[in-house]
């Protein structure tokens, strides 16, 4: 039994030596395959257009700090700001990716003006993605069947109709939106609340500008959403304040006119009417005073619910492309060429091994 195991081990060792010798004997062929992989890798690496990534890091303020500062003032009017803070749907930064990838948010970016001074580009983001984005040469080959189909197709889409109706998106615009979605990346840390926004474009200048714009748009979007109810309450408080103010001034003017018109009158009816007008003026003043306090509290609430974002890393124009990684592409094709050549050299041995 031991002799059998020794014979099997010896056969395996001899086989491995034979395979190594066979590979060494065909080293010129393998080196040629390696050279072919190197050439193909160079062609592929330099055919893929450069992409530049701009990163912005920001963090929202802690709501407890602001609520603590305003809590004492709000408590005078019986408003608890702490309980109202952070209860809206967009309070968590984890939902920011959904905001950025939403169709209304993306469509709002398509009309912004972008420029590249080096390339002489000055157009809208929609036109830049549609007309100025380059692709690898094989991308045009893959698109050829679709282009030929478009030439013989009689169907035409009116872009004006799609722009006038927010529920209608043309096929071309949908492709632009999908392209833009792939170029925008946002992530948030659950523990720290730090949000990272990355924008990838073929122009470093446009990449930095779009990253700054997306950051500003996101901040405005979140601020508008989170202060929506507070701003509605403020508008309603302003309306009540103006009505109570006008009512107070009216009752005060009525009382003054009645007193001036009956200065020398001594009558119980006069005193009763004057007392009634005085009570009405006092009541109107009380309501007016309460509405003034409520208006101030509504303004405080709007300020309190307005989130403040601290930009840790602003948008800076990148100096070096983020992709493609030419080294990785070259190493990958060299590896594939070498392995393919070795497999070809050892094909007969592999067949015998699989059969046995």
TrEMBL record:
Compartment(s): Cell membrane
Domain Polysaccharide chain length determinant N-terminal residues, every copy: 13-83
Major location category of this protein: membrane
Keywords on record: Cell membrane, Membrane, Transmembrane, Transmembrane helix
TM helices/strands, residue ranges: 29-48, 328-346
Membrane topology reported for the UniProt record: Multi-pass membrane protein
InterPro entries referenced in this protein's UniProt entry, alphabetically: Bact_polysacc_biosynth/exp (IPR050445), LPS_length_determ_N (IPR003856)
Pfam families: Wzz (PF02706)
PANTHER family named among the record's database cross-references: FERRIC ENTEROBACTIN TRANSPORT PROTEIN FEPE, TYROSINE-PROTEIN KINASE
Protein name stated in the entry: Wzz/FepE/Etk N-terminal domain-containing protein
Organism: Dysgonomonas termitidis
Lineage start: Bacteria, Pseudomonadati, Bacteroidota, Bacteroidia, Bacteroidales
């Amino acid at each position: 039994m031991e002799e059998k195991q020794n014979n099997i081990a010896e056969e395996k060792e001899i086989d491995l030596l034979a395979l190594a010798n066979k590979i060494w004997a065909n080293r010129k062929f393998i080196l040629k395959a390696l050279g072919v992989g190197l050439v193909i890798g160079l062609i592929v690496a330099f055919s893929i257009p450069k992409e530049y990534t701009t990163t912005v890091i920001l963090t929202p303020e802690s709501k407890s700090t602001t609520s603590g500062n305003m809590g004492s003032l709000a408590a005078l009017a019986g408003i608890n700001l702490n309980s109202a803070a952070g209860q809206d749907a967009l309070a968590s930064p984890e939902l920011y990716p959904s905001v950025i990838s939403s169709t209304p948010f993306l469509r709002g970016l398509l009309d912004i003006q972008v420029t590249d001074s080096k390339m002489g580009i000055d157009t809208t983001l929609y036109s830049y993605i549609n007309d100025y984005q380059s692709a690898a040469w094989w991308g045009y080959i893959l698109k050829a069947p679709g282009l030929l189909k478009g030439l013989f197709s009689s169907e035409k889409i009116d872009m004006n109709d799609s722009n006038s109706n927010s529920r209608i998106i043309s096929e071309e615009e949908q492709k632009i939106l999908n392209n833009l979605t792939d170029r925008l990346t946002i992530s948030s840390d659950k523990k720290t609340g730090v949000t990272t926004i990355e924008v990838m474009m073929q122009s470093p200048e446009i990449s930095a500008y779009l990253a700054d714009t997306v950051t500003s748009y996101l901040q405005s979007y979140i601020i508008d959403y989170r202060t929506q109810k507070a701003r509605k309450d403020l508008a309603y408080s302003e309306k009540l304040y103006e009505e109570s103010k006008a009512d107070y001034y009216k009752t005060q003017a009525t009382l003054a006119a009645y007193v001036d018109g009956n200065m020398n009158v001594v009558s119980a009816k006069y005193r009763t009417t004057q007392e009634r007008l005085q009570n009405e003026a006092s009541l109107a003043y009380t309501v007016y005073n309460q509405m003034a306090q409520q208006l101030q509290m509504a303004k405080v609430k709007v300020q309190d619910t307005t989130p403040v974002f601290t930009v840790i890393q602003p948008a800076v124009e990148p100096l070096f492309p983020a992709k493609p990684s030419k080294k990785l592409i070259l190493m990958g094709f060299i590896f594939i060429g070498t392995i393919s050549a070795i497999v070809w050299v050892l094909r007969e041995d592999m067949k015998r091994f699989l059969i046995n």
